[in-house]
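In the current project phase, work has continued on tokenised descriptions of protein folds. One protein thus recorded appears below exactly as we store it.

——
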Amino acid sequence: MFFSRTLLYCVIIIPSLLRSTSLSTCFQLAFYRSVVLPRHCFTQLQATVDGLGTGKFELGEATVAVSSIIAAPDNYVLLDSRTEEEMAVGIIPGAITKAAFEADPTKYADKEVVCYCTVGYISGACTYELRKKGHTNVKNMGDGALLGYTLAQTAAGVSKPLVKADGTATNEVHCFMPPLAALAGEGMVGKSFADPPAMLEAANASIKERTGL
């Protein structure tokens, strides 16, 4: 089953995506490529992030490693830049929303705010946008962002690294699309959008409108 699915990606899906020039297509290609290649999960996540074109936001040193966040969580305010549907599945404990930040940014002016999304692309756009507005204390989560976080936590023996809205610990994580569930870590249960391509298109359109990139 795995072989046939991999063959489908390699022979049919990826070549068809390569014939398109849309940003959404590049986004999808990066996801499929990260799953098809037989690499360690962390390497796959990094390949996905790089393939998405996150570098166009030119964040440079405005990136915080997952290991730093896990080692000293009180040093950071985490900002979940995903949709409400994604956050409802599970968030990193203590995370705030973009709306909460923008409602009172002065509240976090002396904090190091770290944005995250599924793998770091959409949060990269969020970081770019907020920094352009003068919030230079905002940075992006590196190392595969949320999936890098759950992967590291589960590897360390944490079985339920995320929480629901009511604070209940959970091993569920929204991974945007099914192929990425395998990168979330052992024991994690991946959820995804009903129509990932449509969500990719909407995300890219929003990024273009907000950042011009």
Remarks:
- The beta strands are 63-64, 76-80, 96-97, 112-116, 138-141, 162-163, 169-170, 172-174, 189-191.
